[in-house]
Amino acid sequence: MNLNHKFFSLVACVFFAVSASAEFIREDGQWKIKAGTTCDVTPESLTPKVMARLNAASRATEAKNYSAALGLWSDLAEIQKGKEAEAIALINSARIHIARSQLEVAEKEDLDEFFKRHANFSGFGEAVELTFELANRFAAGERPYLGGWFPWFKDNLHALSLFEKVVKYAPNGPLADESLIRMARLNHASDRKPEAIDALTRIISDYPTSKYAAEALETLAHLRSEESLGADWDQATAMESADHWRTLADQFPNDPRAKLAPEQIKILRDRAARARLNLGKFYWYSRNNPVAAKLMANSCRSISPESEAAKEAETLLAEIEANPNPPTTIADKLLGAYPRPSNANEAKPTVLNDDLDSLGFRQEPIHPATEPERH
Q: What angle in degrees, to the nearest 10, is found between the helix axes of 308-322 and 261-281?
């Protein structure tokens, strides 16, 4: 057999394996192997037993005889580990455990085991949906029950790890962006602002067309604004907040939240402008530095020309132009005026040339060391 024949034989085998992969379907209350697919039961002699177990487990589940159903699904998963029958068993076991409020069992023993071995299962989306349902139950404060009857502690923050699993296992699925916004809401409600900001940022960057993008931008703008403690502090987060409001107004002009953007941007820009004005006043009144003061005042006017801070900046600039020295304070009278920084245009120190004799430093010629001198 030549190499070309081997290659095409391999491709044909792979194509056949993919197109004929096993798929169990349920019709008229009975499990069957879908036409055109090959049963993956191993060994094949177990096929009748597996089909009978599938039907018996499904009947017990429908009758809400959960104890018997869980035993049947568990046996089926054990004898068909890694096969499609196990995937079906794990999903159905998860549904029963959720119905009995055995939430942690559904997560750890059913769904986590499913995700380990069944990424290609045709019903993969069902497992993602069940994980999302589990997350919502934890987030709502539902109490888990051990063994289906003993009440256990509530843990609404455990929902965060489950929402993260939804995004991890199905990043392009229909529940990914909703999982992130629910993570953001839960973190925000629990005063976990950094984690909320992270989830909101991921929505904006990874799902810009999401129906939750406008909400993410608004919430992120508010959180960033809250990080700025006022005009006497750094305004980087305030300007970032203004950018989020601007993006919201530009990308979602018909969203009701966009109507708040102009006023919020005005407030934030005025705050940032006032921060520069405060710096300008500090340099003028406390540091006797008119150059830096004028630089900060002009920066204030550039950030928000129509703000009250900009009007105050114009007054400060006029004062500096009218009087080259700031008003004298009590401290200046007692200790003297604060020394003014040197101007860049002032004469620079003269650079000395090689003739150092005039300064008393005589240059001696350098002689190579002789052999005796080395000792």
A: 20
Other C-beta atoms lying within 10 Å of the C-beta of residue 306: 12
Distance (Å, rounded) from C-alpha 9 to C-alpha 7?
5
Identity of the residue numbered 363: Q
Q: Give the three-class secondary structure for 194.
A: helix
The most distant pair of C-alpha atoms in the chain lies apart, rounded to whole Å, by: 113
Could you tell me the end-to-end alpha-carbon distance of the chain, in angstroms, rounded to an integer?
A: 86
How much is the pLDDT for 324?
A: 81
Please, are residues 324 and 290 in contact by the beta-carbon 8 Å criterion? Answer: yes
Which residue is associated with the tokens 């993006």?
247
Helix (H) / strand (E) containing 25: strand 24-27
pLDDT of residue 6: 40
Contacts of 15 (CB under 8 A, 6+ apart): none
What is the rounded CA–CA span in Å between residue 83 and residue 53?
14
The token pair that represents 47 in the structure block: 């096929």
Q: Could you tell me which residues are beta bridge partners of residue 33?
A: 24
| 8 vs 1: CA distance, rounded Å | 11
Distance of alpha carbon 219 from alpha carbon 247, whole angstroms:
13
Residue 19 pLDDT? 33
Is the sign of the CA dihedral 235, 238, 244, 246 positive or negative? negative
Token pair of 169 as six digits: 């296992």
- The length of the chain is 375
Helices (H) and strands (E) in the chain, counts: 17, 4
Of 15, 20, 19, nearest in space to 37 by CA: 20
Distances (CA, A) of 191 to 4, 184, 196: 64, 10, 9
Euclidean distance between CA atoms 32 and 44, whole angstroms: 15
Residues 6+ apart with CB under 8 A from 252: 213, 214, 217, 258
Positions of the chain with pLDDT lower than 70, given as ranges: 1-22, 332-333, 336-337, 343-375
